[in-house]
Design brief:
By secondary structure, the chain is an alpha+beta fold. It has two domains: about 170 residues, Barwin-like endoglucanases; about 140 residues, Ribosomal Protein L25, Chain P, CATH 2.40.240. About 25% of the residues lie in helices and about 25% in strands. It has a nine-stranded mixed β-sheet with strand order 1-2-15-11-12-10-13-3-14. A six-stranded mixed β-sheet has the order 5-6-4-7-8-9. α2 packs antiparallel against α3. It is globular. About 45% of the residues are buried. It comes from Vibrio galatheae. One of its GO terms (molecular function) is peptidoglycan lytic transglycosylase activity. It is an enzyme of class 4 (lyase). This is peptidoglycan lytic exotransglycosylase.
Length: about 375
C-alpha cells in the first residue's frame, strides 16, 4: 500500500511540557511499559458503532480460506458479543482476550491517520495537457531507477505507460495511497489500479520536507495543504519537491473492482485499517476508540468505539500508528487528509485458539 507523510506532524505533538489534547489525546491509563499490554478488563464508555464489522469479517472469510481458518472463530465470538452485549467489560465472558497498545507516549494514545481510494483522471494517449505517464513495474529489483531518473525518462520506450495524467501530483498522491480508481476521460471507462510494486528506494515524506523548509506550517499539514501548495507552484518547483522522495510506486490495472488492501481483501470504509504486520498479522481484529472530527479537521471532542480489522500495511505505518481506510473519492480524501489524531486501541484474541494471547510479541519487538 504506500503511505504516508501525515504522521510526523502529529507525533511531535506528543512531546512537550503540557499534555496536549487538541488531537484527541486522552490520559486515563497508567504508563505502559510495552507495545502490547495484557488487559484483564477493557473499560470504555464511548458511544459504539459495530455495524460494519460483520460485513468486513465476512469479506475475510469469503476471500481468504487461510485467514478464515485462523480468525473465523474469533470473528464469530465477536459477532456474538456484539449481538448479546457489546459491553467492553464483558469481552472475557465470550472468551475474548485483549491487549492494549501502549501508544507513542506510553500513555495509551495511538496515532490514527487516514487513507482513501482516489479517482484519478487519465487519458490512454498523451496530449498537450495529459502528458505525465503512470507506469507499470519494469523488470528490475534492487537496480530500479529512482523517481528523479524516472522523471528524466528512464522508463520511456519500454511500453510500461498505463495512461497519462494532467499533472504530477495526482499520480504521486495515488502512489501514497498505494492504489485507486482511474477514470479515462477519452473513452469514459473506469478501472482499478492496484499496487504493482515499487522501486525499493527509501521513502521520504514530502510533507515533512515542506514543513522543514517552512513552506507549510506544521499545524496545517494535510494532503489538501500539499496539493494546494503544488497547484500554486510551477512544474520545475513541484518536480524538485517530489524528487526528494526517491521511492516510486508502480500500478497494475484491473477491471473495475472492490478496493483491496495488501491482504487481498475488499476494504470497507471505517471498518478496515492498516497496521504494522509484525504486531498485527493480517486479519487481526482490534477494538478502537476512533477520534471523531469536525468538517474543518479539528477534533470534535468525542471518540467512537469501533471494531476494525487490520487488512493493509504500509512503510510508514509502524508500531503505535494505524491508518484508517475512509473510502473512495474526493470527500473521503478530504476526511482522510485531516486525520492525524489519537485514540485508544486493543488488539483482540480468542482463548484456546490460534489467536490467543494477543499481548505476545516476537522477542525483537519486546524492546
Amino acid at each position: 500500500m504506500l503511505k504516508k507523510y501525515l504522521p510526523l506532524a502529529a507525533v511531535s505533538l506528543l512531546f512537550g511540557c503540557a499534555q496536549p489534547t487538541d488531537r484527541a489525546q486522552q490520559y486515563v491509563d497508567d504508563e505502559f511499559t510495552s507495545i502490547l499490554n495484557k488487559s484483564a478488563v477493557v473499560e470504555s464508555s464511548k458511544p459504539r458503532d459495530f455495524t460494519e464489522f460483520h460485513r468486513q469479517a465476512e469479506q475475510v472469510v469469503i476471500n481468504s480460506p487461510s485467514m478464515a481458518k485462523i480468525y473465523q472463530p474469533l470473528y464469530d465470538s465477536l459477532n456474538e458479543w456484539v449481538l448479546q452485549s457489546g459491553e467492553p467489560t464483558e469481552l472475557a465472558s465470550f472468551g475474548i482476550q485483549a491487549a492494549q497498545l501502549g501508544g507513542g507516549d506510553k500513555q495509551g494514545n495511538v496515532l490514527f491517520t487516514g487513507y482513501f481510494s482516489p479517482v484519478m483522471e487519465l487519458r490512454h494517449q498523451a496530449n498537450e495537457i495529459f502528458k505525465y505517464p503512470v507506469y507499470a513495474k519494469p523488470e528490475c529489483e534492487s537496480d530500479c531507477p529512482t523517481r528523479a531518473q524516472i522523471y528524466d525518462g528512464a522508463l520511456e520506450g519500454l511500453g510500461l505507460e498505463l495512461g497519462y495524467a494532467a499533472n504530477m501530483i495526482d499520480p504521486f498522491l495515488m502512489e501514497v495511497q498505494g492504489s485507486g480508481f482511474v477514470h479515462f476521460e477519452d473513452d469514459d471507462t473506469l478501472e482499478y489500479f492496484a499496487y504493482g510494486g515499487k522501486n525499493n528506494k527509501a521513502y521520504v515524506s514530502i510533507g515533512r520536507v515542506l514543513i522543514e523548509r517552512d513552506l507549510v506550517p506544521r499545524e496545517k499539514m494535510s494532503m489538501k495543504a500539499i496539493k494546494e501548495w503544488v497547484l500554486n507552484n510551477d512544474e520545475a518547483t513541484v518536480r524538485e519537491l517530489l524528487e526528494q522522495n526517491p521511492s516510486f510506486v508502480f500500478f497494475e490495472p484491473r477491471a473495475d473492482a472492490p478496493v483491496t488492501g495488501s491482504a487481498g481483501i475488499p476494504l470497507l470504509a471505517m471498518a478496515s485499517v492498516a497496521g504494522d504486520r509484525s504486531i498485527f498479522p493480517m486479519g487481526t481484529p482490534i477494538l478502537a476508540e476512533v477520534p471523531l472530527l469536525n468538517p474543518d479537521g479539528s477534533w470534535s471532542g468525542a471518540h467512537q468505539l469501533r471494531l476494525l480489522i487490520v487488512l493493509d500495511t504500509g512503510g510508514a505505518v509502524k508500531q503505535n500508528h494505524l491508518d484508517l481506510y475512509h473510502g473512495m473519492g474526493p470527500r473521503a480524501g478530504t476526511e482522510a487528509g485531516h486525520y492525524k489524531h489519537f485514540g485508544r486501541v486493543w488488539k483482540l484474541g480468542l482463548e484456546g485458539s490460534a489467536t490467543q494471547a494477543p499481548w505476545a510479541l516476537p522477542p525483537e519487538k519486546l524492546q
